[in-house]
Design brief:
153 residues; alpha+beta; elongated; OB fold (Dihydrolipoamide Acetyltransferase, E2P); 5-stranded mixed beta barrel
């Protein structure tokens, strides 16, 4: 028989939330919070079995993901996964937040790109907000941009 203590769930929750820093998909954090809720449930109901623990974790984690993407961040769940990156390359947008090497910024497009007009982006060089940028590549769900030389007016 499998016996999982409350602290097992707490450790799993912390590990998943820490993994979010390495895999910035903003999904693992919700599964980590779900695990922390299961830890709380096991503390409050000490005899809670393994199957109910798993069910609580799955239901709360999925509920957190749905709440985040449907209620708190509508329209930000669009991804480039499964789409041709060639469609995005060459598109010109306006940088709405500064971007530094190894740090994300945001770029806005006049017409929506893949259903969203605001995308996270990265660059090999520092670019200030207000600069026009061109999409030079796609890395997962993040656009790679370069300066176009023109400043927005």
């Amino acid at each position: 028989m499998i016996t999982i203590e409350w602290w097992h769930w707490a450790v799993l929750g912390v590990v998943l939330m820490a993994a979010e820093m390495v895999v910035p998909a903003f999904v693992l954090i919700w599964f980590g919070l779900g695990a922390l809720l299961v830890a709380l449930a096991v503390v409050l109901v000490p005899g809670l079995g393994f199957i109910p623990q798993i069910l609580i974790w799955i239901v709360t984690s999925i509920a957190f993901v749905i709440l985040w993407f449907k209620v708190f961040k509508p329209g930000h769940h669009v991804t480039l996964i499964g789409r041709s990156s060639a469609q995005a390359i060459g598109e010109v947008g306006l940088l709405v937040s500064d971007v530094e090497p190894f740090q994300k910024g945001q770029v806005s497009f006049q017409r929506p790109l893949y259903g969203s007009d605001l995308w996270d982006c990265i660059s090999d060089e520092a670019i200030k907000s207000g600069e026009r940028v061109k999409v030079s590549g796609v890395e997962g769900s993040i656009l790679k941009v370069t300066k176009t030389g023109g400043h927005a007016s």
